[in-house]
């Protein structure tokens, strides 16, 4: 099975979340969480922190992430690990290929004209709310 990850990153005040604007298909032009591929032999946390750094410049020292949930796509032979965390300090973002932007954490993340993933981003953000004590614990 091929593995991927996405990371819900929140600003220090938790009022904004970090998104990237997809520059190619699937979901070209739509907003998505940052993330990428899990390499063979790589554990989930290592992959999530690596992708976060590659896509944004955010390091392990800047954020503590929590493994929130997984999605398994049996027919596609793929899975996605979902992580979430809030920044501990201010960062200077560095986009790899998809432009990065901060948006309000109060948006309608189920709006499929704006967000990638057939509603999965909305589902993820609702679970962030349900688990905010664990995700935002050390902030």
What does this molecule look like?
This protein has one domain (2-135): Nucleoside Triphosphate Pyrophosphohydrolase. The protein has three helices and seven strands. It is globular, with a radius of gyration of 14 Å. With 139 residues, the protein is an alpha+beta fold. The mean pLDDT is 96. It has a four-stranded mixed beta sheet with strand order 4-1-6-5, with helices on both faces. A three-stranded antiparallel beta sheet has the order 3-2-7, with no helix packed on it. The longest helix has 13 residues, at 44-56.
Question: What is the topological layout?
Answer:
Blueprint: E1 2-10, E2 16-21, E3 31-32, E4 34-38, H1 44-56, E5 63-73, E6 78-87, E7 100-104, H2 120-130, H3 132-135
Parallel strand pairs: 1-6
Antiparallel strand pairs: 1-4, 2-3, 2-7, 5-6
């Amino acid at each position: 099975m091929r593995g991927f990850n996405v990371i819900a990153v929140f600003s220090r005040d938790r009022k904004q979340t970090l998104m990237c604007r997809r520059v190619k298909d699937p979901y070209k032009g739509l907003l998505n969480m940052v993330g990428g591929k899990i390499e063979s032999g790589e554990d989930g946390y290592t992959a999530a922190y690596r992708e976060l750094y590659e896509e944004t410049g955010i390091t392990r020292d800047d954020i503590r992430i929590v493994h929130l949930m997984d999605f398994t796509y049996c027919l596609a032979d793929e899975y996605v690990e979902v992580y979430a965390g809030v920044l501990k300090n201010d960062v200077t973002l560095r986009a790899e290929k998809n432009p990065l932007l901060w948006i309000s954490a109060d948006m309608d993340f189920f709006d499929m004209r704006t967000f990638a993933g057939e509603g999965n981003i909305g589902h993820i953000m609702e679970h962030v709310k349900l688990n905010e004590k664990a995700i935002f614990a050390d902030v």
